[in-house]
Amino acid sequence: MTLDALINSLKDIETITDPHQVAKLSQDYHTFSPVLVPKLAGKVGDIVVRPAHEQEVIQVAAICAAHRVPVTVRGAGTGNYGQCVPLHGGVILDTTKLQKILWVKPGVARVETGVKLAALDKKAREIGWEMRMEPSTYRTATIGGFVAGGSGGIGSVQYGLLGDRGNLLALRVVTLESEPRVIELRGDDVQKVNHAWGINGIITEVEVPLGPAYPWAEVIVTFDNFITAAQFGKALANADGMIKKLVTIFASPIPQYFHPLHSYIPQGTHPAFLILAETSLESLPGLVQQYGGKITYQKPAEEVGKGLNLAEFTWNHTTLHARNVDNSITYLQSIIPANQDLQLVADLYHYFGDEVMIHLEFIRVNGAVVPAALQLVRYSTEERLNEIIRYHEAKGVLIANPHTYIIEDGGRKVIDPEQLKFKEMVDPYGLMNPGKSKVLEFKAQKRS
Amino acid sequence: MTLDALINSLKDIETITDPHQVAKLSQDYHTFSPVLVPKLAGKVGDIVVRPAHEQEVIQVAAICAAHRVPVTVRGAGTGNYGQCVPLHGGVILDTTKLQKILWVKPGVARVETGVKLAALDKKAREIGWEMRMEPSTYRTATIGGFVAGGSGGIGSVQYGLLGDRGNLLALRVVTLESEPRVIELRGDDVQKVNHAWGINGIITEVEVPLGPAYPWAEVIVTFDNFITAAQFGKALANADGMIKKLVTIFASPIPQYFHPLHSYIPQGTHPAFLILAETSLESLPGLVQQYGGKITYQKPAEEVGKGLNLAEFTWNHTTLHARNVDNSITYLQSIIPANQDLQLVADLYHYFGDEVMIHLEFIRVNGAVVPAALQLVRYSTEERLNEIIRYHEAKGVLIANPHTYIIEDGGRKVIDPEQLKFKEMVDPYGLMNPGKSKVLEFKAQKRS
């Protein structure tokens, strides 16, 4: 099918063919990885298609299926694994025009896939609710992109990860068939599409539970010793009576990359960045004192939205700030096993020194508080990076390797058999985001 | 000081001297314990005084201090340790007229000590909030009584125990001095009075954080195997994405004591009683299926307040229902250590059989889900009861022994040194609830 024929058949649906624009919309933030950059260089779609509602999505799906055109779905492109970089050209299906907030009720909302997380928050807060968890890119990221390519973030210290039972209520997907179907997945069935990198149908609507929108305060606490800071973070994350949505610990010298915050973080100290319900604020000084910390910055809830926003220095925004200062820096994503957590963190801290600067994000995993880490790595070679990864893995750390565009090499290690079964049904021609999965490539080769 | 002189000096403050009334107001629910009943038999106050506001509390305190009259403070008398049974007569200070709700704001409320928990809930729910945790006696229990003599309950699976940092924001207490002072305790200082059984000043006001008032659904799930039921309870309690305020597991034959629920619990099955946010309900069947359970009863949130109320079959209401059928039954209160929990539960279940019927309440302790237990015990002799307790303790179970009226023999084992220091300041004559503490009795004897 020629590009012109495709455009003609799309009729009123918005298309973009300007090569600069198409190249831009074929990108995400895999540029954080010096390993991925060369591997994904030059990978661009042939055309960007921007449906405005589900009916247009169905039209695009039908045409692509009939003509066997690859389809790579994207939200805002804030992922870091090259999730929405098309390996085999074809159509980039940009979902950002699907931005209706369908309804918001106490504790639950349903929205179109392209709704920005911040937009849903704004609407939900009118009635006292908000997203349970969000990546640090919540201002631009879409909810469909978060479901397809994300896993957790700010709020995960309370609610765990997006894939945990109860954190995602329903998904509506369009299949990539000549006569596309629209399928509503509810309950455990949402896992057939959650975190599937857009290979399992085109998400058009998302139903999520909401969390109460506490008045949130932001706090920086500094410590002279990194391990003490980490212990404080763990104790706070475990304090069941204190409501928090962020407990982040940075080893010095990471804060040097946060220019606007220098006056709150004395050089050489190790800060905790916290977001706490204002009702829990009065209980903080007792805990801080117990670990010998100092509260150096406090922003009350009424100033939220004004001035500095601590959340935007955490999770993968940390890496962004560091790379803005020194673009030779890259990162890891990992979960430290709960049974040995802080001793192992101490060992890694001393072993690698400044080569691997530790950035902890406390989260809940199956009911227990564990330190996730997005370590900043001073990159030298791919070999050394792999050596660092292997060292961590040998110690029992789960590395969700952000230096691969293969699903199985990232956090999940395998694709859920349920997802594969669903894949065969909704994408019989293997057109969705092709090339991102080992097992699917293997199957495709066997067929051909 | 004669009773008449006391009454005269109290002027307009309500007093009760009718012996039947005084005897009734000298009681609590220690009658659940066949060991406590004979020990506390005949222990009554000389008079009940019912101040209507703090100024009257101050007057009572001044007179009692000046004349060295013992003072035993009570709320609704729903405790089970004889906390408000006066060992040395004197004044029963009944706080139930202090029932002003001072203010309720999003996430926090301040009330007078005698406010019933259910009354605060009703008010707070008007703006979308409610108590974070409550005993099963919430319809009658007062908040001051809960603070002085309680420790947790329905909601503790989410927020931990009342004593956990952040679950109690401030207390206002009147000292027992000839010129009483009014002291406001905030932050960690609230621990000087929390769970002190009324020996550390008279609480007049309480400030508590609130939790979001989710639309709550009630569910019964039955299992053929008790340990499977317990494993299900643990998995649900650990499911970070599912919002719950009650996860209770009963070993058969406990449900035989719940007459109104018989049709939902097939004989010989082991039920889970759950209170879940309605948004989490859709995620329940997947988990239930995983453990081979059956959902036999479901009450949607809109029917809350109508018909059966599952919460009132849990925590110590379980014991109440059992004793209504068979008053030879008594109980234990315990916490199973987290590291071995369900294996140990299985061992105890098989070892004691029907003599100790296991009733689990999952709660959070320092960030981790652990099974608390309020086992029903078929009572034979005090010796056998002690043997049962010792067996549990030898296995590492913490027994908060409800068969003693001595603070140190209950759940806390020792009185916090901070509480003792505060005691000396606020009750210099040792008049408050005398006889309930080993260390204080010892000190009193040394002085005399």
Automatic annotation (TrEMBL), chains A, B:
The protein's matches in InterPro entries, at most eight in alphabetical order, are given as: FAD-bd_PCMH (IPR016166), FAD-bd_PCMH-like_sf (IPR036318), FAD-bd_PCMH_sub2 (IPR016169), Oxid_FAD_bind_N (IPR006094)
Domain annotation FAD-binding PCMH-type: ranges: 40-213
Instruction: Name the domain of life this protein comes from.
Output: Bacteria
Against PROSITE patterns, the record matches this protein to:
FAD_PCMH
Q: Name one Pfam family in it.
A: FAD_binding_4
Q: Which PANTHER family match?
A: D-2-HYDROXYGLUTARATE DEHYDROGENASE (PTHR11748:SF119), D-LACTATE DEHYDROGENASE (PTHR11748)
Q: What is this protein called?
A: FAD-binding oxidoreductase
Q: What are the leading ranks of the lineage?
A: Bacteria, Bacillati, Cyanobacteriota, Cyanophyceae, Nostocales
